[in-house]
Amino acid sequence: MVKKHFKLVSSLIITLFFAFFLSGCGSNQSADGSKGKTYTIKVANYFAADHPQNIALKEKFKPMVEKESGGRIKVEIYDNSTLGSEEQFIDGVKNGSIEMAVPGMLVAKDMPIIGLTEMPYLFRDYEHAQKVLNGELGKELTKGMVEKMGIRPLAWTANGFRVVSSSKPINKFEDFKGFRLRVPNNPRFLEMAKGLGANPIPMPISEVFTALEQKVIDGQENPYATLRASGFYEVQKYVVDTRHIFSPNLYVINEKFYQSLDPELQKVIEKAAIESANYEWKLLQESEEKDIQFLKEKGLTVVFPDDTFKQKLIESQKPVQEWFYRTYPGTKELAEKIMAVK
Q: Model-level pTM?
């Protein structure tokens, strides 16, 4: 009886030992417990839910991160300025209250050199822009971001070539004179609008639809995808295919949060950001022709400038390019390198 009881106790001890051992292995924890820690990444942006930026985040970035992190990272996407204006969510990533964001070049407030990407007529086409930004020049543009802003650039994405939507016809360059044009609140766009002869009116993108509807402004300028996804076509009649500025975006992450992650999780995020960003470039370019057709079907007239109109547009922005070179030392040399990329 005693022997049988001893065997039963021994068997129970061995079972408990293996259960404890397997449990310890399954948790994948280090001595400080960090290996088992889970995280939530909030990703903020100002794009509409069905914009290529958010489609890429939902179809690539979120599932890749959640799967390849083994469920240790949950991704929450906050589109359409849900977490505030672009300026507010950039500040959120800087101070760590938001882990990630996809801002535009408003980051140039802290990193003036990066604003060069939005110099008028810098990029020839999407292929040129992607080749530059995904290469060494793209790294040069973001150099020092961690030190200056406390945020880490992960990947360049495309907002697109900007066009002007209007409530009144613009058939020639001179029609821009006195035109009340909404622009982002930064000096680069104010100078661009002045070059056109327009009256620049800065405001957050979240206020643009109402301003168009109430005729506070005559028009706005954004890529086709934004014009469609934000519904601006509902309160506009014309689009002018100016392609005056190419606007990129960046995937950025709070540096302290990034450094708190295990190296393998850092690699998961970096890989997912690059794949998602590349997917977004593809989606945006594929959507452009469809967006133009969609706008036409909604009753908008799309104006493609003739050679005279195009030349006047380009000439109007040469003083703006010179303003860039004067205002931001070093941009002329970098701009020349960018334009030389074939």
A: 0.84
